[in-house]
Write a structure and sequence with these properties.
The chain is an alpha+beta fold. The chain is built from 17 helices and 19 strands. Strands 2, 3, 4, 5, 6, 7, 14, 15, 16 and 17 form a ten-stranded mixed beta sheet that branches. A seven-stranded mixed beta sheet has the order 1-10-9-11-8-12-13. Strand 15 and strand 16 form a beta hairpin.
Length: 531
């Protein structure tokens, strides 16, 4: 029980930089540096094929260390940093950043242009476009990485978006589980959410962005169901199996204060009032429980009412699949995550482990035990010794992580903020400035997926647009990738690069424009498909 009967506070999630970082002798910006002209030139040379595709050039790169082992601010890799943290760093940063830029140039906040009474009808299509925009850019960036490193292949172990959600058809555009990019013998596994907070992106609401986790370890395909999660920085003695009282008391004891801060999503199923009665301050948001895990590890921002950082995530149920990326990224910063599978339908906190027979079958079919408590070390075997990186880029201002700011789209340039966390325990915030080689309108058109543009025209005009896109090798390649990541639920990839498309299944859930596209592409590019 709460010994001093202190009731915790329920607040929003917005943090600020600690006051001690802001005086003239310790001001945080003095730790930052700008890459030299030669370093920027190297980024452009290494990534020229990718940048040229969108008519972009990197104008400058700024780096701000926020968690430091040794040497990273000067470009010297810390002990234990492998290729993902060194030679592939720029490519991974561009994968996250271009996804955020694509949404920000075409789709971010577009629901605000609709009258309030029209928004419910338009929200689904705008969300799908934003998912597709980010997915397409991130896909091209990962293909560019594999093209530049033929010895490497990338396997998507977990992609967020496949699960059927209320009011949606499921199978939203995403880098999907099982997708393989490249053919090299050195395989890396990826957990990715191409838009964390897609609903927020439609309104330009806070704390939406892109994120991916890549590792040389194996990541098992976790069933896309619910997890009860306990994710606490620097406290090893408790797990999700412990009563809430024990978790709260353990954190209070470890911190030496009763002013502890936990995050949970604002859901009826979550025990927020119970946590408040135990004296915990609950920092609540409507969507997005990945960034709070990273924020707890960084300790980069503090809440204005007690000037303390987030201690962790507790009393929170969310998607099992998307947990992996943030939990792994947080692990390198001292966040210890444990989780247990939950029922697909949960009305009350006390019913979270009442799995139906179907729930249990789904979990067991994935090779997991419904009653077991899983640590992130179990879900990413070998995490302690493997090369790995977590990367995120902001679409809107991130209220959990100061300086991870919204994409700024200017008339001839754009600035993207991104976070890079290496397995060696370092973290850096990047500010990447892109300049346009074309007018803004043409740049927006170029970075918008070809498929998004095709789906926006009348169905009768789609066959001609498809033929036009296929007339160039670059256009055909992009369209092939965009089709695969948008309609993976209807496509079976076959040996030799061909695929089998189930048009009858697509007809049950896809729009008339999508069906017109799928039929047109089978006629215009028959070599892509099996007989």
């Amino acid at each position: 029980m709460n010994a001093d009967n202190r009731q915790g506070r329920r607040t929003g999630v917005k943090v600020q930089l600690p006051p001690e970082r802001l005086d003239s002798r310790r001001i945080f910006s003095r730790e930052a540096r700008r890459l030299s002209a030669d370093e920027v030139r190297l980024w452009n040379q290494r990534n020229h094929p990718l940048l040229e595709q969108y008519g972009l050039e990197i104008a400058s790169v700024m780096v701000l260390p926020v968690a430091r082992a040794t040497g990273l601010a000067t470009g010297t890799p810390p002990p234990g940093a492998g290729p993902l943290q060194t030679g592939m760093r720029d490519r991974l940063l561009l994968a996250a950043s271009l996804g955020a830029l694509s949404v920000s140039m075409s789709g971010r906040g577009d629901l605000l242009a609709r009258r309030p009474e029209e928004r419910d009808a338009a929200k689904k299509s705008i969300k799908e476009n934003n998912d597709r925009n980010s997915t397409a850019a991130m896909t091209e960036a990962l293909y560019a990485l594999s093209d530049a490193s033929p010895d490497v292949s990338l396997r998507i172990a977990i992609g967020e978006g496949a699960r059927l959600k209320p009011g949606e058809k499921g199978g939203n555009p995403t880098l999907y589980s099982g997708q393989v990019i490249g053919a090299g013998a050195k395989q890396y596994a990826i957990a990715v959410d191409t838009v964390e907070g897609t609903s927020k992106s439609t309104l330009f609401d806070h704390s939406c962005g892109t994120l991916l986790y890549i590792t040389e370890s194996r990541i098992p395909a976790v069933p896309d169901v619910y997890f009860d999660k306990c994710q606490i920085r620097g406290v090893d003695g408790v797990t999700v199996a412990d009563p809430l009282e024990k978790v709260v008391e353990a954190v209070m004891e470890a911190r030496g204060t009763r002013e502890v801060n936990f995050f949970a999503l604002d859901r009826p199923r979550h025990p927020i009032d119970r946590m408040l009665s135990l004296g915990a301050n609950m920092r609540i948001d409507t969507d997005g429980d990945a960034y709070p895990v990273i924020a707890a590890g960084l300790e980069w921002g503090v809440y204005p009412d007690n000037l303390r950082p987030l201690d962790g995530v507790c009393g929170n149920i969310g998607g099992a699949a998307e947990m992996i990326a943030s939990a792994a990224g947080g692990w390198y910063l001292g966040v210890r995550s444990s989780a247990r599978f939950c029922a697909s339908k949960i009305r009350r906190w006390e019913e979270r482990y009442d799995l139906s027979a179907q729930d249990e079958a789904v979990v067991r079919a994935g090779g997991f035990d419904p009653s077991r408590v899983y640590r992130i070390e179990d879900l990413v075997p070998g995490i302690a010794g493997a090369d790995a990186a977590f990367v995120a880029a902001a679409i809107s201002d991130n209220w959990h992580i100061p300086c991870l700011n919204a994409v700024f789209v200017g008339g001839n340039f754009a600035t993207v903020s991104a976070l890079f966390i290496g397995a060696a325990g370092t973290a850096d915030l990047y500010g990447i400035v892109f300049s346009y080689r074309q007018p803004l309108e043409r740049t927006v058109e170029t970075i918008t997926p070809i498929l998004t543009r095709i789906l926006g025209i009348p169905a009768a005009e789609i066959p001609g647009a498809v033929r036009g896109a296929l007339s160039s090798p670059a256009g055909a390649r992009r369209l092939r990738h965009e089709m695969a990541t948008s309609y993976y639920t209807h496509i079976t990839e076959l040996p030799g690069g061909r695929m089998r498309l189930d048009l009858s299944a697509a007809a049950k859930v896809e729009s008339a424009e999508a069906l017109a596209f799928l039929k047109a592409v089978t006629e215009a590019a028959p070599e892509w498909f099996a007989d």
